[in-house]
Amino acid sequence: MEIKPINSYDAMSKLAAKIVAGQIINKSKMVLGFATGSTPLGMYRELVKLYKKSKLDFSKVITFNLDEYLGLSPEHPQSYHYYMYENFFKYVNIREENIHIPKGNAEDPVQECLNYEREIEKVGGIDLQVLGIGVNGHVGFNEPNINLEARTHIIQLSNDTIKANSRFFKNLDEVPKKAITMGMATIMKSKRIILMAWGVEKKKPILKVISGNIATDVPASLLQVHNDVILVVDKKIYSSSTVTDPLFYPKKTIK
Ligand code: PGA
Predict the structure, then answer these.
(1) In this predicted model, what pLDDT tens digit does every residue of 212-224 receive, in sequence order?
(2) In this structure, which of 134, 160, 214, 244 has its CB flanked by the most CB atoms within 10 Å?
(3) Residues belonging to the active site
């Protein structure tokens, strides 16, 4: 894992956008995995700036979002479909047919999961997956559990996640209790992964992600097995770390 401690949310967003843009420029066809939530908002803003100022071309970019709330239609203001269009897609030259987001209101959600997985395979897998991390260590909506599911599936959201995400809804009851999410294997098959973490509330899960231990009650800890992960992390979290595995994360990388 390559660890990049950063001083500000802005710096994190710029660095993540630079990595994404670099990959787009270097490849004629690029498959990106996208995340939602507060963490990547700044990155999307930076990518829109790069599109406007530097003509970063999204016309050959194919995207797959990590997850979607089950039961929400794409028009619902709290759906991740709505988020992606409002914060990113409508400002760049991405082709509608290249955008993939699980359909929260699919008639047959199980079939939707299978189709989603097949669509990812059809384009040769994800080249670069952008991830945030939940306060409980989830990635996508892969919630802490004894067993994790490998492929795109329907998941019951944990109380921690429902509580954390209630800030986007009128109240706790309005937060959907289930979601469709890529599985851990879907994510781990991505060729490259950027994990972003900003704010002290992410300290606990991030320290576990770099601990050297892999546990299904911190799904993000599985990322330690992947050989191309860039962790862009709030310096307040990382510099105070005392539990990094010295073999993987030598002290000299701690700033
Ligand atoms: P956040 O969510 O970016 O809104 O903190 C991250 C997540 O739950 O994966």
Answers:
(1) 899 999 999 999 9
(2) 134
(3) 67, 136, 138, 143
